[in-house]
Amino acid sequence: MPRYSRRAAPRCELGVTGKQVRRALPLIPPRPAFRAALGERLGIGYQESAMRAPVQPPSPRRDA
Amino acid sequence: MTNPEPDQALIDRARGDRAAFGELYERYVDRIYAYVLYRTGSPPDAEDLTQRVFSQALAALGGYDPAGGSVGGWLFTIAHNLLANYHRTRARRPAAPLEAAADAIDPALPVLEGLEAEEDARAVRRALDRLSPDRQHLILLKFVVGLSNADIGRVLGKSEGAIKSLLRRTLAALRRELDKDHAPI
């Protein structure tokens, strides 16, 4: 029976989960200025709501 | 609390009302941007491609057919085709786009808590970067973008069943890559 380091053991036993992948690859939002400028260029009436705070990556911190 | 207007209804309304397209933009812009950023590893290129995705979608509203899949699947198909052109016009893909994209995270964002969580995330990213581009792509569409297997199938031109099977094999391959990094003592 092979021995694993303490931190590696759960991963080896349970495999890679979607939660692990989402933590490794968080949803990276665009710059708020870019988001607002593009909305304006597209002429879709987006500029006002674009001034809200940037969206935080949802899964990694919720899963932590 | 009212239910959000379905994507399909927004598309129908957007044909005569650009503000409705603004709602779709708000729903999808973060995921489209993250998708192209992870596939290019370059924030400036990701911004350029994100702009093209929404410009093309706006111009092609009349051509959207709900029988072909969800609005999300349609938007990511546009992004996928633009990325295919992007990679064709370059000599080669970046060596480690996932790691490069992750490095682009604004350091002010508290993305991960603690050194151990960050080390684990890096280990997974290193393992992902060793998978084939096709497998990385599949992982992105499923776990970062959050598309259904049916929509992933539409983007990649495969059946839903084939995607399910590919996902299972890809997660197994990822596990093997991680195990190489944490070899038995």
How are the SSEs placed, and which strands pair?
The complex is a heterodimer of chains A (64) and B (185).
Chain A: H1 8-14, H2 18-24, H3 32-42, H4 58-63
Chain B: H1 7-14, H2 18-40, H3 43-59, H4 71-88, H5 97-103, H6 114-129, H7 133-144, H8 149-156, H9 160-181
Helix pairs in contact in B: 1-2, 2-3, 2-4, 2-5, 2-7, 3-4, 4-8, 6-9, 8-9
Which word captures the global form of chain B? Answer: globular
Shape of chain A: rod-shaped
Please outline the major beta sheet of chain B.
Answer: none
Q: Tell me the radius of gyration of chain B.
A: 18 Å
Number of DSSP helices of chain A? 4
Mean pLDDT of chain A: 67
Rg of chain A, alpha carbons: 19 Å
Task: Tell me the span between the first and last alpha carbons of chain A.
Answer: 30 Å
Distance between the termini of chain B: 55 Å
Poorly predicted runs of chain A: 4-14, 60-64
Q: Care to count the β-strands of chain A? A: 0
Structural class of chain A: mainly alpha
Biggest interface and which pair forms it?
A-B, 40 and 53 residues
Unreliable runs of chain B: none
